[in-house]
Amino acid sequence: MTFVVCDDEEIQRKKITGMILSVYPDAKITECGRADEVTAMNRTAQVIVMDIDMGTRMDGIEAARIIYKQGTGYCSLPLIIFVTGYPERMKEAFSVHAFHFVEKPIRKKEFEAVLREAGIAVGNIMINAADSKNDIAIKYGKETTSVSRSGIKYAESKGRVQVLHTVDGSRLYSGTMSELQELLGEGFYRIHRSFIVNMDFVKHYDRTEVRLLDGTSLMMSKYKYAGFVKAYLAHISGKRHV
Q: Is 181 helix (H, G, I), strand (E, B) or coil?
C-alpha cells in the first residue's frame, strides 16, 4: 500500500510511519510537513494520514477539501485519516469525507485497527474500480446496457447489427464491426469480417477456424491468420506473467 504522512512535527511523522510499517511492512510511505504538499502528491497515495492543525495557512481540512474535488468523489482514493489533538474538529473532518478520525495522543492498538480497516477499504475500492473498467456500454436502438468484457466470448456480424455472444446469453449492438472492435479493445481479435473473438475463450485454432472452449467453431480468414497467431501468442504470454 502507498501512504502519505503529513504532520508539522517530525517526531509525530516518524511515530505514525512506524505504526504503519508495523501493520504493512512493505508499505511505501512519503512524509511531509505542510498540508499544501499533500495536495500535490495525493494522486500517488492510497491512504493519507494527516494532522488538521499544522500552523500553516492551509490546514488539513482545506487540503482534504481540495483532494476530494480532485478525485472521483465519495468512496474514492486516497482515503484520508485525520490525526489531531482537537476532537472538536471531528465534525469538520467528516464534512470532507474523511475515512477516520484519530485523537492525539495516538493509541497504538486503536490506530493499527484503523489502518487495517483502511486496507480492507482500499482493496474493495480497487476491486470495484477494476470491475467498472471491465464493463462496456452497449447501445441498441434507444437502449444502453452494461456488459462485462470478460464475459463476451465472441461477436458476430449481422450487417448493421452485431451480436455479442456472452457466457449468460447474447446482446445486440447497433453499430459496425469496426466500431465494436474498437470498443472491445485489447484481448479481442477480428479473425474474419464476421467475427471478433475473445482470446481468453480460444481452445484451438488453425488456418481455417478458431474453436472456443464451449465447442463453438468460428471461421478464420486466411488474411487474418498470421496476425491472429502473433496477437494470441502475445496474449497468452502476458497472462502467464501476470
A: helix
| CA distances (Å), origin 118, targets 44, 123, 128, 151, 208 | 16, 9, 15, 31, 52
Cell numbers at 206, concatenated: 488453425
Lowest mean pLDDT among 50-64, 74-88, 126-140: 126-140
Locate 90 and state its grid cell: 471531528
Mean pLDDT of the chain: 87
The CA angle 88-93-96, to the nearest 5 degrees, is 150
Q: What is the mean pLDDT of residues 188-204?
A: 95
Enter the C-alpha cell of residue 31. 512524509
* Residue 96, SS3 per DSSP: coil
CA-wise closest residue to 190 among 178, 207, 205 = 178
Domain boundary assignment for the chain: 2-132, 141-240
Region 97-107: mean pLDDT is 90
Count the residues in the chain: 242
Mean pLDDT throughout 145-167?
91
* Residue 128: band (very low, low, confident or very high) from pLDDT cuts 50, 70, 90: low
Q: How far is CA 194 from CA 109, 126, 156, 164, 181, in A?
A: 61, 36, 6, 12, 11
Q: Which CATH number among 3.90.226.10, 3.90.1100.10, 3.20.20.450, 2.40.50.1020 corresponds to the domain 141-240?
A: 2.40.50.1020
Share of the chain above pLDDT 90, in %: 52
Q: Could you name the CATH architecture of 2-132?
A: 3-Layer(aba) Sandwich (3.40)
